[in-house]
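Blinded run. Sample ID left blank on purpose so nobody reads anything into the name before looking at the predicted structure. Input follows.
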Amino acid sequence: MPNDHYKTGIPEADQLIDELTDRCAPGERKEMFRQILTTVAKLGMEHDDLGDFKLINTTLKELRHSFRVFYPYRAQRKVMVFGSARTPESDPNYALAIELSRQLVHEGFMMISGAGPGIMEAVNRGAGKQNSFGVNIKLPFEQGANPYIADDPKLMQCKYFFTRKLIFAKESDATVLLPGGFGTLDEGYEMLTLFQTGKTLPRPIVLLEDPRGDYWKNWLDFLDSVLIKKGFVSQEDRSLLQIAHSPEEVTKYVTDFFRVYHSLRYVRGLTVLRFTRIIPEKLIRQLNSDFKDILTQGEIRASPPLKDEMKNREHLDLPRLVMEFNHRNFGRLNEMIQTINRALP
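Blinded prediction complete.
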């Protein structure tokens, strides 16, 4: 939205910003670009902490580079896979990651890994360079890019974990976690938190492990016996994730998730769910009965594209359901999406 009041307060500086905006970002991007330049100018005017300038400079560079790398592939769905950098090739989970990547690529997905060794290497190995992205983190003791993504133009390096995790979340459509250490758990908790709070769109989150292992079983025991039992998270949050013991299970869950459900958009207080096929009236009545608890008012109803969607020409050919969602029960929202997916052939 335009914000004419957001200026540096120095007429000469604001005029230069306007001139640079006209040259670099005409059209619909103009106002947002002007605000970005104004923010940078105000930063320079307000204080002189060199460390702050370094942080912002590196962050902007990393995000700009990631947008440039991913932009040509935005139309293709992607799965990010996390797991330990210390997993050896002899570990059965390494083989699971290779086969999972092969199967998902066969189904039309591209794969995103952290570009390092272990599980990350297995992901890029199974997908092949042409279907892989690598988002590496610069560390003093590890990790160089694995040979299955090294020197590929879809490999990028990040200094900061927070920009790396933002890239993972922004550019992917599904998350798979294999056993790992602090980094894997951190990335997994990040995705669960983003989904639980509505800061990322609905997605499959799958915990994958060799059937002889107990890593995720022990973690789920902690989730059930401590987090849910003590009320730190709700029972419905359990539906944000699934556990699997084979690449076939993961591939089926991920492909089924997007078989009917397509995407979600918030438009002026309304939640718009888009689908690949028409939702029958009988099913809509069932949804209103089973999921009325997630509405603030009104009903779940079929709708043509809304004005904002038409303005941006957003998937105008897809059927839609519209509702006034409470923006709180995202576990229940995920259950509703799964109900629709299962109900239609």
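Unblinding after everyone has recorded impressions. The longest strand covers residues 295-303.
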